[in-house]
Specification:
Elements lengths: L1 E2 L8 H14 L21 H4 L3 H17 L2 E13 L1 E8 L14 H15 L4 E7 L3 E8 L2 H9 L4 H4 L7 H12 L6 E8 L10 H10 L3 E7 L3 E10 L5 E10 L3 H9 L4 E5 L4 H12 L3 E12 L1 H20 L7
Parallel strand pairs: 3-4, 3-6, 6-7, 7-10
Antiparallel strand pairs: 1-2, 2-11, 4-5, 8-9
Helix pairs in contact: 3-11, 4-5, 4-10, 7-8
Length: 335
């Protein structure tokens, strides 16, 4: 509760002072008749004697309610309306077997990407997100959706091409075309592809230039991320031992990211290219993308005030009338 004219509440200070003076001083006796002793008189403990001050107390309380009514007490009802311009985002993730290279935290490139993607999804509030995976071919894992628990569950289950049993390789053009196709019907003001890969195009029926032209034609922005270090490294290879148990070994591998292509994908669509060659690079990159691609939220706040002073006026009148009636009837005093 608030008060429109709170300065009237200062009237309560002299009112409380006058009440205290009256209470401590007591009521002045109207008449008296002296006696030498009242010891043998019967004691008067009637209810009228006990409640003799009630009428005056009701009148004092009425004055308090009148003062509060002068201050115009009000209650408010508040309504908040949010207008949200969401962003449609498709994440295109490379799941080729080279993403198993163990040069990123917490274990390898694909696990690092998955953990970062999950944190990215958790930070979005009103944006539709889809997930496309690709190696030598491309598939839509999750279409555009606001079902974040579903997205987190499906991202957690992503594995490499070998375990998914799809063709290995790196089909950048096919992946771009597939991701752009997920966004072509979107009516969002901002449409974004976050493209993560650790290689260069070596597979697919659509070349990267065609894939890029499709994305540009739909007005889609691409944030491209090259994962891992270039140069000689080793890739895990899994096989079976004599007893049928899975055994991991390592083979030499030459890791190469096509920075030129990834840079053009970002530059020509109005996005940005990142290189995630350090173990902690991906979280920093996605934090920056979060800042660059913020959802626009307009908040309109409305307040409606309700006057409550009539309640205090009515209570004050009732108390004053009650005190007046008691003085005239039940608690009437005679000299």
């Amino acid at each position: 509760m608030t008060f429109h004219d709170p300065e009237f509440l200062f009237l309560l200070i002299p009112l409380i002072g006058l009440f205290g003076f009256w209470f401590l001083r007591g009521e002045k006796k109207r008449s008296s008749l002296p006696f030498s002793s009242t010891a043998d008189w019967p004691k008067n403990n009637s209810w009228r004697l006990r409640f003799k001050k009630a009428p005056t107390l009701f009148k004092w309380a009425a004055l308090v309610f009148f003062v509060v009514a002068l201050a115009r007490p009000q209650t408010t009802s508040e309504k908040v309306k949010k207008n949200t311009d969401g962003i449609d985002i498709v994440i295109a993730l490379d799941i080729s077997d080279s993403m198993m290279i163990e040069d990123m935290k917490p274990l390898n490139r694909i696990e690092s990407a998955k953990e970062t993607l999950k944190k990215f999804i958790e930070k979005r509030t009103s944006d539709r997100i889809g997930v496309v995976i690709f190696a030598g071919e491309s598939f839509t894992l999750v279409p555009l959706t606001l079902d974040y628990p579903l997205l987190l569950d499906r991202v957690s289950g992503i594995s490499t091409a070998r375990k998914t049993r799809i063709k290995d390789g790196t089909a950048l053009g096919v992946a771009m075309a597939n991701a752009a196709g997920r966004l072509k019907e979107s009516t969002a003001k901002s449409r974004v592809i976050i493209f993560l890969t650790d290689g260069e195009n070596n597979s697919g029926t659509i070349d990267p230039e065609t894939g890029l032209a499709i994305a540009k034609g739909y007005g889609i922005k691409i944030y491209s991320i090259g994962i891992g270090r270039d140069g000689p490294t080793s890739i895990p290879v899994f096989g079976k031992d004599f007893f049928g148990r899975e055994v991991k070994s390592y083979q030499p591998f030459e890791s190469t990211v096509n920075e030129g292509l990834l840079g053009r994908m970002a530059q020509e669509t109005g996005g940005k290219f990142y290189r995630a060659s350090q173990e902690d690079s991906l979280p920093k990159i996605f934090n920056e993308i979060n800042q660059l691609e913020k959802t626009k939220i307009d908040i309109n706040q409305f307040k409606k005030y309700h006057e409550e002073f009539p309640f205090f006026v009515v209570i004050g009148i009732l108390l004053y009338v009650l005190g007046w009636l008691l003085n005239l009837t039940l608690l009437r005093r005679t000299p």
